[in-house]
Design goal:
It is elongated and about 200 Å long. The protein has a 6-stranded antiparallel barrel. The two termini are about 100 Å apart. The protein has helices spanning about 1-25, 110-160, 165-210, 255-265, 350-355, 415-425, 430-435; strands spanning about 45-50, 55, 60-70, 70-75, 80-85, 95, 100-105, 210-215, 220-225, 230, 235-245, 245-255, 275-280, 285-300, 305-315, 335-340, 345, 345-350, 355-360, 365-370, 375-380, 380-385, 395, 410, 435-439. With about 450 residues, it is of the alpha+beta class. Helix content is about 35%, strand content about 30%. It has 4 domains: about 45-55 and about 345-439, conserved putative lor/sdh protein from methanococcus maripaludis s2 fold; about 60-70 and about 245-340, Beta Barrel (Elongation Factor Tu (Ef-tu), domain 3); about 70-105 and about 210-245, RNA polymerase II/Efflux pump adaptor protein, barrel-sandwich hybrid domain (OB fold (Dihydrolipoamide Acetyltransferase, E2P)), CATH 2.40.50.100; about 110-210. The chain contains 7 helices and 25 strands.
Length: about 450
């Protein structure tokens, strides 16, 4: 039985291949043309895009600096003496309006000096009166001796008197004239002395004006160095203060940021034409002040390569509101934003063009790579100088495999376009939070 099964298996192993070969030869004509293979369509990748169009932008740049008073003042003693009176509450932080008496120095010595000068002037007046009386007598004496001299000269011609008598009368006339000249000289010396005394009196009166120290304008007291009862010397600083009418911020702006923005301004617009805003960042509450560009510094910081632009905020105390807006005080560190006039530009998200290259969707819905030149950037907004044009579909998301010519499906991102326009117009805080413009 087992031998029969073995024989049958061997017969089948030989017969089956032979049968398959015969069938293959019989149907070989039908197998000459292979069936056509069906091509698989490559999947289209969706990408987010925005269609570039001109938008309005407010060119702006942000810098930082410390607050300082626009004016500082020191009260220096210009006379010596004891401080006999001071403003009530004269201490650091106190406010004083223009004209307020801050301190009074004892001027008794000056008053005595003034009285002495007045007494000397009065004595000169009396002396002049007596000299004038003597001058009248001396003038009469000169007139008499001159008449006697003429009479004696006539008598000598007549031979009635001797020449010796004439010489004696002539000497008397000379003596009378000399006395009158001495009196005139004394009056001239008195006049010169009077002028000296008048100058001394004016100097003392001027010094008396220094006895009172008053605020030259509205001030805040910083430091008080002299109090009531203290003796002060000439040149000693009594009070230091700062004006309250305005403060200034010497804000530093990196040249690489502010330079491109200024160069992009049309016409003759300069940085002094920019509008300025000062911001004090605070947790959960930002406070801002309107400011004006006062001047531009003349030097560049060698370490930071930053230029200084000074802005001014008027009436910081008047703008203060309890719990809402603190007064701008010395050494506060604030942010300063300079904004130029609005412009219409072609702009794009900075992330899409930051490397100097951009991806756009071509007319046949395929990817194209472009070289892009950025004029300047504000926050996440890049102003396009060259490489892109109105109507281009700029790709915002980079596909996993970015191959030029790849077929893509553009999906318009209206929210991204709205956010771009809002930030460009300064209606979004995104750019401020990231340091303003970038080089």
């Amino acid at each position: 039985m087992r031998a029969s099964i073995t024989f049958l298996a061997r017969a089948l192993a030989f017969a089956i291949p032979v049968a398959l070969g015969v069938i293959g030869v019989a149907y070989s004509d039908n197998l000459k043309t292979a069936p056509a293979t069906k091509e698989r369509a490559r999947p289209v990748t969706p990408v987010r895009v925005i269609t570039l169009a001109p938008i309005e932008i407010v060119p702006r740049v942000t810098g930082y600096g410390a607050v300082s008073p626009a004016r500082e003042w020191r009260a220096v003693a210009r006379i010596e003496g004891e401080v006999i009176e001071a403003m009530p509450g004269l201490a650091s932080g106190a406010l004083a309006e223009a004209g307020t008496l801050l301190a009074r120095i004892d001027d008794s010595d000056l008053q005595l000096d003034l009285a002495q000068v007045d007494a000397q002037l009065a004595a000169l007046d009396v002396r002049d009166d007596t000299i004038e009386a003597s001058k009248a007598i001396a003038a009469s004496d000169v007139a008499l001796t001159r008449a006697e001299l003429e009479r004696q000269a006539a008598l000598v011609e007549q031979g009635v008197t001797t020449p010796a008598r004439l010489d004696e009368v002539r000497r008397q006339e000379l003596a009378a004239r000399a006395k009158l000249t001495d009196i005139d000289n004394q009056l001239a010396l008195n006049a010169a002395e009077r002028e000296v005394l008048k100058a001394q009196r004016a100097s003392i009166e001027r010094a008396l004006g220094f006895a009172e120290i008053r605020a030259p304008y509205d001030i805040r007291i910083n430091e008080v160095s002299a109090e009531t009862g203290q003796y002060v010397t000439r040149g000693q600083t009594l009070v230091t203060a700062e004006g309250t009418e305005a403060v200034e911020i010497d804000a530093q702006f990196p040249v690489g940021r502010i330079g491109p923005v200024i160069r992009a301004m049309p016409g003759e617009i300069t940085v002094t034409d920019f509008k300025a805003r000062v911001r004090l960042p605070a947790m959960g509450h930002d406070t801002t002040w309107e400011a004006v560009v006062e001047r531009v510094g003349d030097a560049i910081d060698a370490r930071t390569q930053s230029g200084v632009i000074v802005v001014r905020v008027d009436d910081p105390l008047g703008q203060a509101k309890a719990g809402e807006r603190p007064p701008l005080r010395r050494n506060m560190f604030v942010e300063v934003t300079l904004a130029g006039p609005r412009q219409t530009v072609l702009a794009a998200p900075l992330a899409a063009v930051e490397s100097g290259r951009a991806l756009v969707v071509g007319a046949e819905s395929t990817l194209e790579r472009r070289a892009v030149q950025v004029a300047y950037a504000i926050g996440d907004v890049a102003v396009i100088a060259d490489g892109l044009a109105e109507g281009d579909k700029l790709v915002l998301t980079d596909p996993a495999v970015a191959v030029p010519g790849m077929a893509v499906k553009p999906v318009e991102d209206k929210a991204a376009m709205a956010a771009l326009a809002a930030e460009a117009a300064g209606k979004s805080g995104g750019g401020q939070g990231k340091g303003g413009s970038k080089p």
